[in-house]
## 1
Amino acid sequence: MSKLKIGIIVGSNSKDSINRKLAQALARLARDEADFEFIDIGHLPFYSRDDDADYPAVFTEFKQRVRAQDGILFVTPEQNRSVPALLKNALDAGSRPPSDRAWGGIPAAMIGTSPGGPGTSMAQQHLRNILAFLGMPTMTQPEGYIQWKEGLVEPNGEIGAASREFLTKYMQSLLAWVALTRKA
Ligand code: FNR
């Protein structure tokens, strides 16, 4: 069987994003089991419903990249106790026009890191709500509320020893979830 294709969407456009560092290290951790493709959202303009009449190519290309995946892993910061506007905009842009929504039926999982103890848990609860509406079967366990600490990602880009067992299990669960629920 060929490897699963997992699209990774990072909800940050910071050049020093800790969530991107985590995402890259997670992809590295599971690189033998799946093919990972980072789907950039930082270049997407603000969606307007006026776009629906003649959908911009930049959104259509984004939707094509989403549809080409067996599953999507969202790796996102929390902003003001919710999903960053950058990510919400990408979710909106990928959901329109209503007859041509990209997300439906694609398995998803989410994880995120922040310097604070709650580790993006509130953003993830909001994201779950959105993904439910968009029709994405979303992994429920394990949850990935990760506090950013020195050594979580080593300077060489590997997940640090203290978190490797948990995050290896997380990635194995993600791949099992996608294999179970992906579109035929
Ligand atoms: C934050 N941060 C933050 N952290 C958190 O745990 N809960 C929150 O609600 C917020 N809110 C918030 C709002 C705004 C506007 C900013 C800029 C930051 C802190 C945030 O977790 C921290 O900046 C992370 O480094 C962001 O992740 P990236 O962009 O480095 O991946």
## 2
Amino acid sequence: MSSQLSTLLSEQRRFPPTPEFAEGAHATQALYDEAVRDRLAFWAEQARTLTWIHPWQSVLEWTAPHARWFSGGQLNVAANCVDRHLSGARRNKAAIIWEGEPGDRRVYTYWELGQEVGRCASALKGLGVQKGDRVAIYLPMIPEAAIAMLACARIGAVHSVVFGGFSAEALRDRINDAECTVLITADGGYRRGSVLPLKRFADEALTDCPSIRHVVVVRRRPGGEGDEAFATMREGRDHWWHRLLEQAAPTCPAEPMDAEDMLFILYTSGTTGKPKGIVHTTGGYLTHVAATTKYVFDLKDEDVFWCTADIGWVTGHSYVVYGPLANGATVMMYEGAPDWPERDRFWKICARYGVTVLYTAPTAIRAFMKWGPEHPARHDLSQLRLLGSVGEPINPEAWIWYREHIGGNRCPIVDTWWQTETGGIMITPLPGVVTTKPGSATIPFPGISAKLVDVHGTVLEKGGGFLVLTEPWPGMLRTIYGDDARYRETYWSRFPGRYFAGDGAKVDDDGYWWILGRVDDVLNVAGHRIGTMEVESALVDHPAVAEAAVVGKAHDLKGQAIAAFVTLKDGHAATAEMRDDLKEHVAKKIGAIARPDDIFFSADLPKTRSGKIMRRLLRDIAEGRALGDTTTLADPGVVARLREMYEAEES
Ligand code: PRX
């Protein structure tokens, strides 16, 4: 049994909801009961909280593996996230409170947000963007990122947000896969005191993006317009955001969208070298994220909700932008690093703006733990009333630390399991209703059907196995952009008729879920999903590399770190410079998040007789464990040689 699993199994602490929290909470036991009685009626009731232009005819049409939710219905996502809040008291309420890393601040009321979204939508239309066109967004965490997404939604364009930490090549591949016609970027973004030159990366990407007709550039740096070092503007193609919006009308009609029209594409890593364009649509997605935001985060009008995820990940889409704004909430947004200029930056922000609900990742919590409780202790965190966790399994120790040092032993914690593909939260406690256990995501959200199965697909009541989803849900991905065959194959073929999430899990005697992590060749590095094949392709792209195998290695802070085993071509020496060069090469091909922690040079890699690399053995080696079964190896001597080398390098 893995040490992780045995720690989880011995976890006995229980945290029942306090009566005070339960009394004021949105969620009640009745919500679960209702969903059990009639799942579709439950989701229809959630959908009715949105504003529809035309009512739907059927809640769900399911021809496995393709779902249509709220078919026949029409709505506009931007109208739901902005316009409908403009007629009442929320008109002057802060929609987005933003702080830049250097300390600059901006607040947008719902009214102001509406004006900016309107202008951006008009400007995009002016550039010829039409319903269904794809727009790439490559921005730092600045309000313009949310404004650009909502502007696309307003005119029916499909956005494809690319995380600002991805490289020029990664951006290029994503733009080309979706044939985006417009790119929205910035001259730069601040990270740990320096400027990430996004426009320069974008220009590098655009040397080979034939579909791009226009580039809109946000001026993030003060006085940056004339600064050639950060943004060289190409006449006719490139436009400054502020100039374009200045001339654009603040009103722009919201396009009536069919519930099943595409809202966005978001690329995520899988088990092949090519990222998948996950397709999300309009009515079901918004229903799912609006309902989960309301009940999981117990969002009230007076809350300040801070989801710390970058807009480039699904968490940023669903719980920085669409879910909270559909609920008319106040969203906190921060541009930079948690340890800049000091390790108390997050707590300073919480205190300054009176953040009430904080949603962050275990990797961040583990870093806070390491930095010490004196940093949060210096600030008044008494406004916090609820804490959330997402992105990777949270170890009970980090959970307890979070509860004590951030939540003052009073805030409930919601550990939420979901994925880019699921669109919204799937397994989570509802605060005020469900007793929590440190390290467990607890039970499925009402209306969600999760089951545990063994390798043959047989449903298990409890124990260890694979997590599958047995019924369609409103926020589910509809396909992989341009590759429906891959959609069927990736998610629906392993256990036919059921969605396979790729995660291993355990269900305990109380029916609580303990997510153990990916069982496929997908790594979770500091909450970021990276495919081993992507890193391997980047490595073999280097002229000196003959072969590469990449595995995840347990890491205290990041959860997993990347370890690569590399065979060099004849004539290339395994030097320290070569190691640095290869790390740099991967960072350049994919982005700094994929830079390997360790590179081990080896004359051969352990393979089965059929030529398959035995990653399990490599993981054992990288983590310094006793070796598993080596009887299927073509050349058992390879492992011994590798291990010797690894140990020599480690010492
Ligand atoms: O392995 C699970 C892990 O993150 C994967 C999904 O990654 P991504 O699509 O990038 O979305 C991350 C944010 C939703 C899952 O397959 N994961 C996510 N949340 C949790 C988790 N693992 C354990 N506990 C969680 N709460």
## 3
Amino acid sequence: MHPLVIRGGLVATAFGALRCDIGIEGGRVVTLAEHIAGGDEVIDATGLLVLPGGVDAHCHIEEPRPDGGRSEESFVSASRAAFAGGTTSVVSFIPQWKGHGVWDRFEDYRARAATGMLDHAFHQIISDPTDAVMADEVPRLVAEGVRSLKVFLTYEPLHLNDAQYIRVLEAARKLGCLVTVHCENYDAIQWRTQRLLEAGRTGPKYHAWSRPAVVEREATHRAIALAELVDQPVEIFHVSCAEAAEEIARAQARGIRVWGETCPQYLTLTAAHMARPDGALFMCSPAPRDAEEHERLWGMIRAGTLNIISSDHCGFSAAVKVGADFSVIPNGIPGLAARLPLIFSEGVARGRITLEQFCALVSTNPAKLMGLYPRKGVIAPGSDADLVLWDPTRRVKLTNALMHHAVDNTPYEGMEVTGWPVATLRRGEVVMRDGVVMAQPGSGRYLPRGPYDMVRPRGITANGFGA
Ligand code: DUC
Ligand code: ZN
Ligand code: ZN
């Protein structure tokens, strides 16, 4: 007899959908069968889809800031938002400030993450790749299960120059880490910004003008070319335009190990949103483009060039998103709760992608690329019972209250979606039902990551020169 049975749903995975029952024991899926009799507790999923819990591999949560502050979103509020939207695992960021190491922040950040309810892993941001950091401290983090290094090619005060980026690639290759990259050209943005401000063009809409697609395309090309030089697998974060995605496609066609992520904001928002009186609430980097770009990106998703959809959740209350000019307004929008509903609605309900592709993009592929698969990202015997009971026909108008996050705004306010999570289970426990989140703070688990195949170098370097 199973302690818990999910009965009568259409179980969807990246490999296809199956009408079956799910038997759960000890927080894991133990049985998938046409009919499972009994069950101490039974959840009726008739008429619903049962999806693998969302894996959001790019979230800024309780992240320390250089000014001594911290993201408004705590691990507790982020957990509520995630469960409300059908996400059960996240990968968030530990920053490094120039002149500082990385080890001293790890224990503190890990303790903060442990206060929440989400299962969680970490990316380590590298902004100062000194010998001591790369040779002594990063290996200690890897031993603790941190397997991805995030670098910024733009952003004061985090950005790296090419020499520093190469150092990170080289260290990651030795240590068996993924490198994830924010691709925009720092100097180009600085130049554009200065000229715009000199011309008195200061409003949020000029954020988009300061960083057009070519700035992203150039940095994407460079990030991949240098990764190819070092023979280090990389993920290109938050691809906002087809011309950057085409750089990824070309490299993938040559066999380079590069993956592409995009986010709901680049499939639903446009630069015109930033021209509104509340335009600052739509400011993120890269900047949202236009409706034609949305269609091009969906094409790159269908083609398999863009393999992962994350939220890049980075919420700020409206009062924080003000500034003398666009260059000082903090970048980032909240999207943890809205990710699955928006992608299901714009993708599956509108016929742009299949249900299988949806599962792959929001759960299976991020779990694989982060080294969390098959514990996460799939509904299969032995996997954690992270499940979402999903009503594919329910129509919902998005509001900030439905997002359950800490900040007072969502850029998706008023948008209508088709498809909505009815219940979320994390390791077999119902943590959200009908919009009510009921998980116990402190119940989230750290997901240490060991070596995994997706970040294995190809063993091919330019001119055969070994790295
Ligand atoms: N862009 C990022 O790269 N990080 C956080 C927020 C944003 O808009
Ligand atoms: Zn970024
Ligand atoms: Zn980010």
## 4
Amino acid sequence: MNKTIFSGVQPSGNLHLGNYLGALKNWVALQNQYRCIFCVVDYHAITLKQDPKVLRSKILEIAKLYLAAGINPETAIIFQQSQVSAHTELAWILNTITKTAELQRMTQFKDKAKENKENINMGLFDYPVLMAADILLYNTDLVPVGDDQSQHVELTRVLARRFNSRFKDVFKLPEVYIQKQGARVMGLDDPRKKMSKSASSEFNYVALLDKPAMARKKIMKAVTDSGSEIKFDLRKKPALANLLAIYSLLANVSVQELEARYNGHGYGELKKDLAEVVAKFLAEFQHRFSGFDDQFINNILEQGRQKASAIAAETLTKVKEAIGVA
Ligand code: TRP
């Protein structure tokens, strides 16, 4: 039996090149080796304020982005979290074995609470428990996420172990799956921090749905380091290293090859070429994206809901029996 991979993306903000190179592109490579389940985690998104109309369209947008990136709905399960009520049911049950002190320690909660002082709601606090439910319902082996989420996966393991020893051996212990390639695409305006859709300047990132002309502009405006030699050096030339990494991943050429190709040329030339590579990638990506209509996406999500529900229901039944409510 193949191992199971589970991951999710929130339908909020704009997905960018960092999300594509750090997550989606790698998921595509995994889908033939593993049973893959990719969720649109809308109940996580509402822990911050969302406009209902925007949320609805973002849910479809994320599913379309999955497909445009190359995820195959015939092999992978793509579904919307809120359509499988086992997620919130299991989250409630897991709440009863989660200590508030454990949630208080979560760095993402602390960060988000600081940024949203006027809306520190229970959902935001409980976010990691819902995420644990997402993962545990599907007997997940591996969870491909960025390092900012590894604390949540660690908590998931703690809760699974606690449940298994207190009640019955129901849950499989999942592991974080750390990706080797492209895991950390950095901000174009600040290579010390990860590319982020919530960055203060939109020149931090290239959104997957940015117009190619806009993307070109953003690449040309990216900060560079001092010196002029095109050499990959994370410590001395972090901005250049980031551009080389993006170039290498999008054009499928090694960084060494790029260094050789740009030997004796300046940063300006590299940026101009990278701007073209990015613009071309986006044009093709967006062409695929716009080829999916809402009806088609709704069908995919409905098929996903059916497959996901069947797996989730089985786990939830075992959980209910173990705790004595069924
Ligand atoms: N918290 C994750 C993020 O913001 C999204 C997510 C929710 C998730 N549930 C998940 C990721 C389960 C992996 C597995 O990136």
